[in-house]
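Recall the central idea of this unit: under ordinary conditions, the amino acid sequence of a chain determines the structure it adopts. In this exercise we apply that idea directly, starting from the sequence alone.
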Amino acid sequence: MSGKKLINSAENAVDEALDGLTFIHPGLRRLAGHRVIVREQVDRSKVGLLSGGGSGHEPFCAGYIGSGMLTAGVAGSVFASPPTTSILEGIRAIAKDNKAGALIIVINYTGDRINFGLAVEKARHEGMKVDMFVCGEDCALTTADKTAGRRGLCGTMFVFKIVGAMAERGVSLEDITKTARNIASNMGTMGLALGPCSLPGQGPLFQVADDVIEIGLGVHGEAGVGQAPLCSAHEAVKKLLDHMTSSTSATRLDMAPGEQIAVILNNLGGTSKLEELILAREIVLQLEGRGFKVMRFYAGHMMTSLEMSGILISILKVTQNPDWLELLDAPTSAPAWPTPLHSVLSGPNRFNPEPLPVAPSEQEADFAIKGVSLSDEGAKKVKNILLSVSKALIDMEAKLNQLDSGCGDGDCGSTHAQGARVLGESLESLDTAHPRVLLRQLGVLAEKMGGSSGGVYSLLFTGAANAFMDQVSGEVDPEAWVRALRYGLQTVMKYGGAEPGDRTMIDALHPALLVLEEAGGNLNGEVLKTAGKSSMAGAEGTVTMLARAGRASYVDRAKVNQADPGAIAAATWFNIITDALQ
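Accordingly, the structure predicted from this sequence is:
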């Protein structure tokens, strides 16, 4: 990991980021000369809430400022506690002349405890009503003999939300502080990382080998308490939950069977959304598999560690405090708090919804109109041709992938091979005696190829089937097959946007179509042979064409120096057909 970042300078990164936040959300304002963000309007009849810490954890904590959550936030340099002078200015902004007072919520790290604590003492000397709560819920350490105590992690967001809703309702400072302590004693957090992060202007803070994961790390770039072999999402979640609930750990989270819980899945910055959603599924399934009831689930970038690839899981027990769920659901204008889309029919309590039933398919009724038919010998020949096509495309997988590696993502052969395998497995169920039905069936099967190739072939076959729509009975007119190719290509060009000469599969099939149309209904062996040669020549001619469609159109022209793999694949199966018919 190189540590590359899109910033102007490491020195100004935090200040410019805070400005950017207020530019996006004008309801948040910055105190002049300080890295302090406050609400545009502070209600001094209600308890104010302030938190903060080092930058690099965005959206923590300024992103949680808004009605129903924090009133102000103080930012330090990246991974460094903010100075006491700025913290004190933040406290003054919300607590001065406020008889309701203010609660200062501190994440349990030594620097934060010292600097925030000193600011609180100074604020009290100035006559302000201020209390301080230190949150530490880390479950990584198996012993409790560390003088620094449990680290404060993303479980603190539960505190922000619940006590923020209480403050909005006018609850007293004493009750809010008591609730904050109660929340901390009922939650735990555990995390892992696949890779490190890097400070602006520096390299990685630690190393994680490609075949391991770091277990039990915090959010300041420090390494974890141990490592484990790289594993699946299922195994990774199991490791974290096992550690969090281990009876041998002094920092464990004890949960009784049937325990109702709220969960945060925090993205440490560099985990893809795809992975995040997979992990969310695993967490819910495994927690419920252990007999717990997941009442609320929140996921996203909530307390990051710059671009660290990893996650934190925070669990809050709500069984004995059901009002916490109502407070979690209370509205907030804080921009960073995730709002799940609850069920309109079933209410706010989270559940695992069953898939909605799809509308009854008209496919079977449509396929019942079979139209013209082939002889038994013709149907058998079609089946043999399809089998040959399937085998040929599977054998070409590596070749097509190689052709695709310079102008695409290198999976053209794999996509065609996948479609070919589906075709081979479905041969016995295909109606090879009725062209209209067969082409419609092939259109459905092509969707299972995946990628754009699957869509293109589905269009090709679905469009081709229109050539057999008008004739409901009798034998197949040979010219209908030529019309089918014309209709299929027209459909692909209509929706795909490509035309002959754009370096696609069309350049393999269109020249062959012109040969067949010129021959009229006289599709003798010589015509078929010429059509096959024209198809392959068209495919090979894509070497010199400028890509105007498909993924290759986005690639540097100098790198597009081989034949288009989709065109080569199309010419291959077309020649299998013409050879068989000759």
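The first helix runs from residue 13 to 24.
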